[in-house]
Amino acid sequence: MDTQNRTIYENSTARDVGGFVGEETGVSPYAGSPILNIITEKQLKTCVHCGLCLSYCPTYKATGLEADSPRGRVFQIRLLASGELQPDDPDLNKHLSLCLGCRACETACPSGVPYGALLEAARAQLPPKNSQERVLRKATLGFLFMHPTAMQAAGLGLRIYQKSGLRKLVQLSHILKVLPGDLASKEAMLPDAQGGIVKPNLPRVTPPKPANARRPAAPVNREN
Length: 224
Ligand code: SF4
Ligand code: SF4
Known about the structure:
46% of the residues lie in helices and 0% in strands. By secondary structure, it is mainly α. The chain has 2 domains: 3-123, Fumarate Reductase Iron-sulfur Protein, Chain B, domain 2 (Orthogonal Bundle); 131-188, no CATH class. One iron/sulfur cluster binds next to α4, α5 and α7.
């Protein structure tokens, strides 16, 4: 990032008062951005920089940096969409990666900024950090999630691993700690498989309960 960009980037509130390049000419600075394939320009511009979300953000509390706050990240995402920041910018990657995605800022925001959607749209533009992440992205986003049969096979593998006792053996042996790639912490994040090894046969349609099974409405207080 050049010196000028770094200055506006670290002083986002002041920068936004003056608007973005192109806004004063009526030409959208975001036209053609791949981010607009995922979110709308209106969503991108909803933040009014009031700062009411700041005290809800754990990363802002930890670092005290505007660039690690929801407001600062929204601003960086707008710079990314306008082309003023490049997807491989190391600072941009650092600050977006540090976001926990907890969306505490989203529920606190009075303007309804769809922070989660903005973050996902922006992260989709960032290049993989290393070859391991590149392979993982291709295997999951490029293959697994695109093929239902592969998903079913992966689900079966997960159920066999967890329900057969193999998982307990692996964890007790500590073998994952000696393998490369921090596999132990990744394994700990595996979702818990439901049911047994054999996938339960769920009905295609589950009919609603009869209307008379609904809870009665609370009585109205007529004294008010
Ligand atoms: S994200 Fe919402 S609460 Fe935070 S600065 Fe923007 S408008 Fe204000
Ligand atoms: S999602 Fe969580 S960590 Fe990320 S900016 Fe919002 S409050 Fe902060």
